[in-house]
Amino acid sequence: MEPIIIIGTGLAGYNLGKEFRKLDSTTPLLFITNDDGSFYSKPMLSNALAKGKTPAELVNFSAEKMATDLQAEIMGFTRVEGINPASHCVSTSQGETLSYRKLVIAVGARPIEPPLVGDGVELIYTVNSLQDYAGFRESLHGRRHVAIIGPGLIGCEFANDLLSVGHTVSVIGPDQVPLGRMLPVQAAEYLKQQLAEAGVNWHLGDTCTAVNKQKGKFVLELSGDSTIKADVVLSAIGLQPDISLAEAAGLKTARGISVDRTLQTSEPDIYALGDCAEVEERVLLYVMPLMQCARALAKTLAGEVAEVSYPAMPTVVKTPICPCVVAPPPAGAEGSWQIEPSDKGMKAIYIDTAGQLLGFALLGEAVNEKPALTKQLPAIMA
Ligand SMILES: Cc1cc2nc3c(=O)[nH]c(=O)nc-3n(C[C@H](O)[C@H](O)[C@H](O)COP(=O)(O)OP(=O)(O)OC[C@H]3O[C@@H](n4cnc5c(N)ncnc54)[C@H](O)[C@@H]3O)c2cc1C
Prior knowledge:
There is one protein chain. The protein contains 8 helices and 26 strands. By secondary structure, it is of the alpha/beta class. The strands form 8 sheets. The protein has a 5-stranded parallel beta sheet, covered by helices on one side. The chain has a 5-stranded antiparallel beta sheet with strand order 22-23-26-25-24, with helices on both faces. Helix 4 links the parallel strand 11 and strand 12. The longest helix is centred in the last third of the chain and has 15 residues, at 287-301. The protein starts with a strand and ends in a 6-residue tail after the last helix.
């Protein structure tokens, strides 16, 4: 029997495998992955320093253990280079052509490259895999000052984590506040202030234009004409779904690989989930949505067609210096933020014109209100 082929062994691919095996213990499963196939929790990459974990300690299970547990074959260090929907085949970097009965694309996202010039650009780190992280961690040995380009969720989490073990941290970004796309401005100001008090050097309202090497360090040139001298540079300006394989195979793509609520692409027998997928025009690069998708797709692959739904899914920002949980209102919502500062935090709620709670941002002690407020939010995709 041809196997179900899953491309990618990130949280999307492996969680799908786990959910599928709960329903079907006999259909052959073949994972093809570009990395070593070890199972790890990617969110741990941005708080591993504070948790005292080395990259090796972040591995929960080896590929061999995953293969045994999932009764699957795992082809590691193998890149899928092409998909042929008509003949139900994929071609790999090992020169093989493999047939599938169903194919699942779970290839994740790619870091967006900042538009920079200079002879230091190639030495800038991005972190979107355990291997990336191992390189970044190695670079920190004996080096103190880390410049982070990008004050979004991942940039802020790394800033907090690096501070927690004594690094000097500078963060650069074009908006006047960190997390400007997720938080109302007052909440973002609060987070900015808390992280500044803990030691973050903000360079906001400014963009980095060039990174050059100078005597073992890096000089970052900013658009406002100032410079920063740092030992290590990390870029965290965002991720974009990896649609390259799907596009080349003629599948419908938009920001991500377009799928319907059964996670099927524009081709029958080919599905996508995780960071690479766009589910009914929603691209959500988080763990909770991919878990929902994994459960629904497992059912479909086991023979009972199921549609995914998304409940309200607030995002926890891992900045223990200033705990933060945010559920942004949907794009185009008509309403306003109501802000309640307190001694030890801030509560911001977004109410629409009919009085319905559509979003919130909770900082400091206010994070305790997350469970009660989450219950009041409408589903993201009912
Ligand atoms: C630093 C960091 C912190 C985060 N923190 C949080 C958090 O706190 N909470 C949260 O909800 N989300 C967080 N996220 C996001 C979350 O981790 C991701 O949404 C999730 O891990 C994506 O999983 P994935 O399996 O879709 O993609 P990936 O983990 O990127 O996996 C993709 C897989 O596909 C393989 N692959 C790619 N191309 C090919 C190919 N052509 N052939 C074969 N194999 C291929 C790769 O080798 C890899 O195995 C964080 C992300 C980062 C980077």
